[in-house]
Amino acid sequence: MLKEVLALGKVLAETGTVGKINITGNRRVDTEAITAKIKTKVGDKYDSDQIREDIKSIYDTGFFDDVVVDLTDTAIGREITFIVRERPIIKQITITGNKELTEEKIKEFITLKTNTTLNRIVLRETADKIKALYANEGYYLAKVEPIVSVENDVEAQVNFQIDEGAKVRVKKITIIGNQKMPEKKIKKVMNTSEAGFFSFITKSGTYQEFIFQNDLNLILGQYYDNGYIQANITDSKVTVTGDKKWIYITIAVSEGEQFKVGKVDVQGDILTTKRELIEKVKTKSGDIFSRKTVGQDITKIVDVYGDEGYANADINPLTALNLENRTVDLTFDIHKGEQVYIEKVNIAGNVNTRDKVIRREVEVAEGELYSSTGIKRSRNNLRRLGYFEDVSITTQPGTTENKMVVDVEVRERPTGSFSIGAGYSSSDNFIFTGSISQRNLFGTGKILNLDATLSSKTQRYNLSFTEPWLFDKPISAGIDIFKVTKEYADFTRDSNGFDLRFGFPLYKRDTRGYLTYKLEQVEVTDVAANASQLIKDQEGKNMISSITAAVRRDTRDDFFFPTEGSVVNASVEFAGLGGDVNFVKYVLEGVRYFPMSWDTVLATRGLVGFLQGYGGKESPVYERFYLGGINSLRGFATRSVSPKDPVTNELIGGNSEALLNIEYVFPIFPEQKFRGVIFFDTGNAWDDSFLNDLRYSAGIGIRWFSPLGPLRLEWGYNMDRKEGEKASQFEFSVGSAF
Predict the structure, then answer these.
(1) Is the Cα dihedral 700, 705, 707, 711 positive or negative?
(2) Over the range 609-643, which residues count as b (16 or more CB within 10 Å of their CB) and which as e?
(3) What's the chain's average pLDDT?
(4) How much is the average pLDDT of 608-627?
């Protein structure tokens, strides 16, 4: 506590000079260090206001619990003595009374450190953090008292005495006054929930005051978003039972009438035309009024103006209620402000990644007009790289009103990884995969990868290198060198070769074209006497010389765990540029991510492929389509779904394929990036038909961004099991999902 004692002995006029300055009470802090904080000097005219400032300066050093001033009139002038009491040094921190929470868990919330000066404000803040921790675990009535024992005014023993109390859960939430909105719908928006059977896992039933207060706002928001714009929380009551085990919550609401949208208009600084702006908004006349939708409409209009450089455009929704018709006339009042230019782009947080790797993904540049879409696209560009745990792009005013500074801050994640995976198939038995990769080599964005797949019948090795910005241009180039040996039931296939890849932008940043040239030598050996004639015809060595043209559009908001956006890829491979094999392969694939409530995501993936030979040659069996496996038709063994030879019953692949994956991804432990997934798959491969005899599977799994990389662990159930097939398939791998 800061105290000032000005003992003057008698009331003196504010005259005289300072004759002497003394410092007393300090043991560890040097007198010179204290004197340096005092602006009053010997010989100065005495100034009581300056003395008060000196007291404050000494206290603000953080080394003292108390600062007192004593004044004495002497023959040489006023003698000023600063009497200080130093804060003790923390020698030990102990915790007592904890039974339900471990000492290690509690210590994570203690910011005080031994061998530092005791700060009583931080001490109280720490006690409050521990109390909040207990409340989060259901011990709403827990008490935490910090006790300080000081020895010789030098050393302090700090003890956090904890009275945990009984665990308190929310037993019942009652809503009264709701005539038009079901209680279930109201409770659904609340974060506070009633205790259930799995409360020990889900933490349901936990009560926290600040969360409950926010729940009241969420309830009002639910009403406002459904047209009840006059709704109000008239009362709320939280009652703890006598045995202090349960909490009963009662919330009283006044709903009012439901309103619809009347007229929708815009006014003010019209940048284009009224019609074009009104077409941008989702709110339409006759709709049930929704505050949430109006907020989204404001964002859309802000983006329209932001893309023209009006970074500070102000959109104010004006409402006029018609109580008789129960309608709301909505007018968006627009003030565009002044066009703003980017003065500077700051990059922060990158330790390994070079600045230029980040800057080339940022779609706003110094000297250009501000663009809100450019800011959003820049954020998504950086997230899609997969280098960063978090990407934040904020703005601040520049040196003048028409200038703005853009701050790009990233938090890096490990980009080098050692990955392993395993699976099982009827053809390969156990399959083991491994890779060593670096997606951001030396912080330059270059990609180097070495991967291998090993099983009793398969050996696959691949070394690849990719330069995503060749000559600092948005042109990618890469090379793959590979060797594959695969033993099938009736033959063995050996291949080795390389491919050269080039990529280039087609439209903005998200749509690119790719050209790949592949040269591969394939040898088919050990052909069984009873093998399919299709296989016998391909015995011996063949050279494949092909070029693939592809177009890819990627608008995902994150590389590993996207929540919105899509990926569309269309490719055509033409083999016959020399070599011995002639075929054309067409593949079209699309993935779409839909953000859902409660931080969940619905993802859909569709894929179709067609293969045909030409020049009198059949397409090779090893280029044909097979489904099954964790990245294909889950619930089926890898490459186990395809047409069979009618004579030998051998899997020979199809010349067409179709696949649909639908999955619902939900958070389990969000902070640890641990997610669950429920999926449904269907598809098949065909020879002479298409989209008949579809196979079906469904299952569950988990996704976790582990230290080894994105981990997938999934179990699929075969919904239309046929003879010789397993009822289910369990697989895991380290790598991204579709």
Answers:
(1) positive
(2) bbbebeeebbbbbbbbbbbbbbebbbbbbbbbbbb
(3) 89
(4) 91
For the record, the structure tokens of 47 come out as: 């100034």
Beta carbons within 10 angstroms of residue 691's beta carbon:
11
Please indicate, yes or no, if residue 6 is contained in any of the structural domains: no
**Paired tokens of 291:** 């505050």
Q: Is residue 5 part of a domain?
A: no
For the chain, what is the radius of gyration of the CA atoms?
A: 35
Is the same domain home to 176 and 266? no
Read off the pLDDT of residues 103-132 as tens digits, 9 standing for 90 and up.
Answer: 999 998 998 888 888 888 899 999 999 998
User: Which segments of 637-673 are extended strands (E)?
Assistant: 656-669
Which CATH number covers residue 406?
3.10.20.310
Contacts of 90 (CB under 8 A, 6+ apart): 112, 113, 114, 115, 116, 117, 118, 156, 158
How far apart (Å, rounded) are the C-alpha atoms in residues 20 and 42?
A: 6
What is the per-residue pLDDT for 9? Answer: 35
User: What does the alpha-carbon distance between residue 729 and residue 229 come to, in Å, rounded to a whole number?
Assistant: 52
Same domain, 218 and 309: no
**When comparing pLDDT for 431 and 700, which is higher?**
700
Q: Which domain holds residue 122?
A: 89-163
Selection from 546, 487, 555, 490 nearest residue 515 by Cα: 546
Strand partners, 397: 404
Examine the domain organization and report whether 326 and 380 are in the same domain. Answer: no
State the CATH number of the domain containing residue 514: 2.40.160.50
Instruction: Kindly state whether residue 10 falls inside one of the protein's structural domains.
Output: no
Please tell me the total count of domains within the chain.
6
* Same domain flag for 564 and 657: yes
* Higher per-residue confidence, 156 vs 606: 606
Confidence band of 735 (pLDDT split at 50, 70, 90): low
One domain, residues 604 and 701: yes
Band of pLDDT at residue 569, cut at 50, 70 and 90:
very high
The encoded tokens of residue 350 equal 């990158």
What digits encode the pLDDT tens for the residues 481-518?
A: 999 998 877 788 899 999 999 999 998 888 999 999 99
Per residue in 199-250, pLDDT (tens digit) is 766 678 888 888 899 999 999 999 999 999 999 999 999 998 888 889 999 9
How high is the pLDDT of residue 115? 87
The b/e string for 224-259 (b: 16+ C-beta within 10 A; e otherwise) is: bbbbbbebebeeeeeeeeeeeebbebebebebeebb
Retrieve residue 492's tokens: 């063995």
What the block records as the tokens of 69 is: 């001033």
Helices 372-385 and 291-306 cross at an angle (nearest 10°) of: 100
Based on the fold, state whether residues 233 and 360 are members of the same structural domain. no
Ramachandran area for residue 175 (φ above 0: left; ψ -120 to 50: alpha; else beta):
beta
Token look-up 């002639």 returns 582
Q: Which residues contact 177 (CB under 8 A, 6 or more apart)?
A: 234, 252, 253, 254, 255
Query: Tokens 């002044």 identify what position?
Result: 338
